[in-house]
Amino acid sequence: MLMILANRTISAPLSIWNDHSDAMSIRDCGWVQFFVENGQEVYDHVFVSYRLAEDKKVLFPVIINMDGFILSHVIEPIELISQEKIDQFLPPYEPIYRLDPDHPVTMGAFALPASLRRRRKPRRRLSGHRSPRSWTPGRPSEI
User: Fold this and answer.
1) 109 belongs to a structural domain
2) Model pTM greater than 0.90?
3) pLDDT, tens digit, for every residue of 60-88?
C-alpha cells in the first residue's frame, strides 16, 4: 500500500502552509515514511515505495510525505522514467491475499453498541468472564 501525503497545517486558524503534524500523528503506526523535497523525488519514490511495500520480506505500507501547498500546487518539470525501466525495477505484483467472492471475509467490521453487546455475550460466557453489576446513576446529590 502506498499513500502520497501532502502535509499541511491541521490546527486552526485555517492555513495553506505546511508542517509535519500529519506525519508525526502517525509516526509510530507502522508505516515506512519518506520525506521528499520536490516533484521529481515524489515521482521517483513512487517506484521505490511500491518495491519496498510489496516485498514479501517487508509488507509494510509506505507514505511519501511532501510539503502541502508548496509541492502539491506547483508546476515543475519532471523527468519521466521509461516503462521498460520501470518494468525491470518492479517485479510483477503477486498478492498474498486475494478477495474471493465465493469465500467472503469481514475485516474491521463496525457494530452499534446493542449489536456489540449481543455478539460479545457468548464470548464472555465461554471465557468465564462475569459482567459487573449494572449501575444506575442516582440523583446528582447522591453522586
Assistant:
1) no
2) no
3) 999 999 988 888 888 999 999 999 999 99
User: How many C-beta neighbours within 10 Å does residue 67 have?
Assistant: 19
Residues belonging to the chain: 143
Inter-residue long-range contacts of 6-9, CB under 8 Å, 24+ positions, other chains counted: 6/66, 6/67, 6/68, 6/69, 6/71, 6/72, 7/65, 7/66, 7/67, 7/68, 8/68, 8/69, 9/68
CA distance 60 to 53: 5
User: Which residue range(s) make up the domain with 84?
Assistant: 2-89
Q: How far is CA 46 from CA 2, 61, 137, in A?
A: 8, 12, 56
pLDDT value of position 73: 86
Q: Are strands 62-67 and 2-7 parallel, antiparallel or unpaired?
A: parallel
Q: Are 35 and 97 in contact (CB under 8 A)?
A: no
* Residue type for position 82: S
The DSSP letter of residue 15 is -
Write out the H or E segment, with its range, that includes residue 35: strand 32-35
Task: Quote the number of domains for the chain.
Answer: 1
Which region holds residue 40: left if phi is over 0, alpha if psi is between -120 and 50, else beta? alpha
